[in-house]
Amino acid sequence: MALDLPLHSWLLDSDPALRWQVERDITGAPSGVWEATRARIATEGFGAQLLALQDPDGQWAGGAYFPKDFDFEGPEAANDAGQPYTATTWALNMLRDWGLDPAPLAGTAELLAANSRWEYDDLPYWDGEVDCCINAFTLANGVWLGADVAGIAEWFREHQLADGGWNCEWVAGSTRSSFHSTLNVLKGLLYHQAATGQDGLQTLRSRGEEYLLTRKLLYRESTGEVVAPWAPRFVYPFRWFYSALNAADYFRAAALHDGVAPDSRLADAIAVIRSARQPDGTWLQERRHPGRVWFEVDVDAGQPSKWLTFHALRVLDWWDAAHAATKHQQE
Question: Is the pTM of this model over 0.85?
Answer without folding.
Answer: yes
